Amino acid sequence: MRLGSITISRAHFPVTTLGFGRRIGLWIQGCSIRCPGCIDRDTWDFAGGWKVTVEELLALTRKWLPAAEGITITGGEPFDQPAGLLALVQSLRREFGGDILAFTGYNHEALFAKYPAIVRHLDVLITGPFDASAGQRLYLRGSDNQRVFLLSPKAKSRYPADIDGRRWEGPRHLDFFFDGTDAFMAGIPKPDFPATLRRGLTSVNLGCNLAPHKSARKEPLAFECRV
What we know:
Mean pLDDT: 88
Largest sheet: 8 strands, mixed
Distance between the termini: 38 Å
Strand content: 15-25%
Structural class: alpha/beta
CATH topology: TIM Barrel
Order of helices and strands: EEEHEHEHHEEHEEHE
């Protein structure tokens, strides 16, 4: 039985900054919400990315599953492709014992009512649009209006019980993946990160273009970081 298709931007492993442990990161392409200040504007365009079958995306992730502790699905907006997302999380749940975390710009009330079949396959759901004016002090999210829901016993064993109101503590870490002259970042930076990065690169006579771009590649970006 064919599982349908989904359009993705890129896939990374390991991602260590978007959930518990070493994770597979899947960036879904296309977003109808388009929050001002979003750091992933290159994932907004529904005409971008690569349309793949769910089977193809599963095949891509299988080589990483044995070493992965979790999977993070972000974007873009995953719930803008609900059929493909449902097929993906159902299949991952059958094959994978780690936790599955999804970021979404939609509010939780709408998702719980409209997409219960998707939500029941998730362990962690982080909801709400990015809003810089709400503050950026709370753990594992871009702005303080966003909510974190622990949906399973596994999630509750891995994440702090007070995570929905927990503040960031200590430095924030980021993952970087490189492809030729392009660099891709995974994580949730501090609000002043772009300016800090530019100053640091300028100090060693390097430049930085943080503007979104359209890759010339013909296949999804799939990066594995070997450390």
